[in-house]
Amino acid sequence: MRDTVSVLGINVDRCTMAQAEERAWNMTENGGVIYTPNPEIIMAAYRNPGYGAILNRADMVVPDGIGVVIASKMLKKPVPERVAGYDLVCRVLKKAADEGKSVYIFGGKRGVSEQAAEKIKSDYGTKIAGFEHGYHKDTAPVVSDICEKSPDILLVCLGAPYQEKWIDANRRDLPKCLIIGAGGSVDVLAGNTKRAPEFFIKLGLEWFYRLICQPSRFIRMLDLPKFALTVFFKGQRQGGNENA
Ligand code: UDP
Asked: Which residue from 157, 192, 216 has its CB within 8 A of the most atoms of ligand 1, so it is best to mutate?
């Protein structure tokens, strides 16, 4: 039974990083989907209930952004801590190396998924089942490749909302494994994008660091104050009153 808090209609799991890792690990055996929304993604889901429904069909939804953690506190049903998607992915990859499980990386620009695969292999020692870039017009051959390689872990790094929509549409055709909508993690794993320094992460300012490094994110980040205000006024309620 999941213990969740509804943040603008999205059921976010109230678990620690260690608990999230344990549940993720069980999904490598039993199958399961994990999404890692930040406030921008929850706002997108609030505006588009169809996307919200997709997020709510996951087996676990972890609070990737500090804004989601703060929202859960405002809603008087706090999550114990932030569970950053990238950190969860790294923990799972490390354990997979210890236990001999394999990973398939789908997403990122041409060459980036391969770079990520090489770095994962050299840094963690995880077995690579396969990799594929994320710019296919028709992804049916990718689904076939994933089925053929039968990984224990599938990282889908197509960016939101595409990756969640893709996972939801293809889930039944994919092998039983742990599937994580891992977004820009592929760029960090490949070594092309740096994670914020610990100082920013500890202060809950990773979003600010990303804004300094990528000023083009400014428009997207305008959703952060909108998110705070919407949670304040609407709380747990589902969206649907704005166009996506
Ligand atoms: N991406 C992809 N296919 C697409 C769109 C995006 O593979 O059609 C990849 C993109 O190259 C990047 C990743 O998705 O590596 C995440 O993109 P973004 O930084 O927008 O995601 P975020 O993690 O910030 O949501």
From this structure: 157
